[in-house]
Structure of Type VI secretion protein VasK:
Amino acid sequence: MNIPGNGLGRFGLAGLTLAGMAAIWWGITRYGGMLNINTRGEQVLAFVLVCLALVFVFYLPAMSRRVKESLYRRQSQQASVLPGEEGRVALTPPHHITVGEIRQTLRYQYGRAWSCKVRILLIIGSVRDVEQLTPKLTQELWQEDQGTLLLWGGDPGAAVDNAWFTALRKLRYRPADGMVWVTSGFDGVLTTMNRTKPRLTPDEMDSVSHSLKLRFEALGWKLPLYVWSLYEGGNEKNGRITQPVGCLLPAGCTPQIVAEQFTALASLLIEQGIQQICGQPQHNFLLALADQLTRKPETVTEPLSVLLNPYRPQPLAGVVFSEASVEAGRSVRHHWGRDNRWETIPDSVLWLPAGLRPRKQGVNWMRGMSVAAAALMLLWAASMTVSFIANRHLVAIAQEQVRLASAEKQPLAVRLHALSALQKTLSQLEYRSQHGAPWYLRAGLSQNDDLLAALFPRYGEMAQPLLRDAAAHHLEEQLTAFVQLPPDSPLREKMTKTAYGQLKQYLMLTRPEKMDAAWFATTRMLDWPQRSGIADAVWQGSGPSLLAFYAASLASHPQWRLPVDDGLVSQVRTRLIRQMGQRNSESTLYQKMLAQVANQYADMRLADMTADTDASRLFSTDEVVPGMFTRQAWEQAVQPAIEKVVAERRDEMDWVLSDTKQTAAQSTLPEALRARLAERYFADFSGAWLDFLNSLRWQRAATLSDAIDQLTLMADVRQSPLVALMNTLSVQGRTGQTGEAIADSLVKSARQLFNRDNPPVIDQRSGARGPLDATFGPVLALLDNRDGGTPTSRLSLQTFLTRVTQVRLRLQQVTNATDPQAMTRLLAQTVFQGKAVDLTETRDYGSLVAAGLGQEWSGFGQTLFVRPMEQAWQQVLTPAAESLNAQWRSAVVEDWNSAFGGRYPFKNTSSEVSLPLLAKYLNSETGRIARFLQTRLNGVLHKEGSRWMADSINAQGLTFNPAFLQAMNTLSHLSDVAFANGEAGLHFALRPGTADGVMQTELVIDSQKLVYMNQMPVWRRFSWPADTEAPGASLSWISTRAGTRQYGDFPGAWGWIRLLDKAVVSAYPGTSSSWSLSWKAPDGLLLNYTLRTEAGEGPLALLVLRNFTLPETIFSVRASAERVPLTDDIPGEEGY
């Protein structure tokens, strides 16, 4: 627990608090993004909330304790254990309240800077002695007057009041300026009884010294100690003279020094004492004290010597002698009367020597920081001195090197030697600029970067004539000599390669971005082993480093480039191009490389990929994979061939022989060529394998037993051609990956195949990424099973084979049954009814696997993962479809024809269909047709709105009769319009229209009349069929030329539909719910009406039943059997 004022101190606690807050802020700004704390406002709010939470947690125990105390007190008062009011008990205020009162009083009197204006003294001693010096201090605990605050420190003979001292430590940073021990134990003057008081014994002084030590520890500070020797004298008040009497002691005081101080004090006391008694004889205190210090100084020095013990000394700062106070007491609380006896102590605490000043107990951080700061300043001053000398020396050396290298009168050897030394200096400065200067060059005076910036321009000015121009002149001479060779000179062929290198060196000087420093220096020295004006040994020793440094610096200083001689460069390029012929191209290099390895390896056929398995029973192909596109060919031939081509190529030097400025310099590097050649190879590698794998065709199975045999072979992990092929793809698909060779992969696959109890026989090794991951990645992911034995959690070959085994077992149960045909139909009908089975789930899983392989692998995925299940499903569906067609005829079609055949509206006869019976068939929920479709075809046929749609998944392999779907959709729509409530019922409105020559029309529908006599037409609502005993419909009119005539009279429930059948119907413009009806009378007049429906076409919808025939089949069985090709084509989509 950190108590304010302990070893850390107030500033230490504040420092820890600030450090903690800084750590919280750093954590919020660093990791706040994980909690979506991003903006500055959110960070500040989070910081405040965390700080408040920590403060709450810190004070939570205290608050909990306070609540428990209050609750206990309230419960005790209610139980009469404690009295209801305790105000009668005089409680002593807590010490922290007292300290707060002191601080508030001093701030009121002296302002906020009271701690600098008030001197605080801690008074200790027996209560009797202290009360004689400062009355009531022991009761009031503190008293203040004239800028001096006295605090009660307790009796040395009593235990330390730790709570009081702990509270005082919060008064200010330094709780007190000094400690005053008030004692009458040094009183050697005779008392009224003519007896001398007993002197303080060494044991008592040891106790006092120990008590002082305990108080210093409780206070946290070691304060200067003042001993106030109190003497009992006369109590006369009138004319009493008070003055400061005593002596201040130096730091490290000894008993001898104390005795000398008292001797000197005695002579002064005698002089002043005589002066006092001359005026007032009763005031003899000074003379009596002088007498004691003269005749019996040991009464004072011996007790004090215990406090000056060199092994445990106390900071004794002074001794004061006085009589008891007479008029010091005041009636005002916490106030006392300060007289001139107190002038010595408050003033002396400001000027104490260093050894006696108040010192904080424990580690003195401020002093340590001061010493550390002083040491740091000294060290920094020494570092600056060393740095100044070292930097000055470095600058002087560089200046001398520049002077020698630039002196044209100096010999060439001297100038080159100085230039070489300057290069070394520049290299050293560059290294220091990147990695930091040595410690002796730093201290704020480092000139490394400034000197480097100043030297490089000077180096460039000197290196250009000495190195660049000289090398260029020598190269120009050599290239000119090459150009001037006669066309038929044999030297042209011999010097082509040399001239190419010389031209490359020359162009490097003109194009800094193309400079290769190491190659340039080495090649240049081979062509320039001798230089005039300098010894050969000296030039060959220093030349490479000179040229290499200049060449390396040229790229960062392009302004040093050599002005190019375009004429010379053009002539040399022309000669070289003619001599070297057509430059090598990347395509040529690639084809050349393939030609070298094409005949080294045999082509891979399907039998080679499936090892000892019989692949022809499952799939086959006539295609092959060229032998050069195998992993063995890559590792043993292709990769070394590419390395050889790259090593011998000249395409990376195209910039030497061409004026084209390449935008990407990296494209000419050997690594770039190697990458491009490898990329082209692996592109062809992927294409060859994709062409081969997509050419695979699944073998057709004539019967269900043949399909079961194929599934058995495919799922047998030890004999499956599919597993063997996938293992081959696992090896070949990792071609180009680093780390595992082909032999390691084969050994690992064999070990997994034979040496494990439950082996995943497919190689599931996870390796590094390779160039074929983009193509073979889906297949490798299908083979990989690194998720801890949970292959069903994602697509995998093992899961697919497990599902195939389940399907094979289910189909074997079907074929082994007593009635295989019945079991087959039952299996298919389970799917028709919307229930999933192993066969459909595996078919869906295979389609998902094929789709997951991607479009590039579509043929491969369809052949190996979709075709087997489709073929097995087709063998199951064919008998089931025929059975379902028979059920449809017997359950629906035959009854339909029996009930409605030869009746209107299906046939134009006088006999009519019963509307209630028709409703039993057409009801959308409980109708016979709807129930048959929902119970028998729920898995392959579903309803979307009013239309029946074939399921694209479960209906694979089936071909719906188009007439069946069309008939179901027609009846479904009719049911929604005319049989919405389960029974036949329509509500519609008719409005008559005017016509030329027509005076009146009368329309009757099931006894509901609409008479119109050319007045304002209005809508008339009708219901069909209406509840009447005379159903039917009739239409009559009266023309301007004749009386009433009848257009038609159609009795029966379908009379209104028969009348509509004779009308001319057209859509009413502007609306989709109205139609125009027109009947043409025999006299040529038009009888016009407007029909407005409530649902769809209203009664017009029933007209679709004219000559309607219900299809007798649901599926086209023959079409289904002939639709799915299994060996030739890969269909894109199914038809229905």
About this structure: Residues 368-460 form one domain. The CA atoms of residues 588 and 594 lie 10 Å apart. Residues 858-900 form the longest helix (43 residues). The chain has 37 helices and 22 strands.
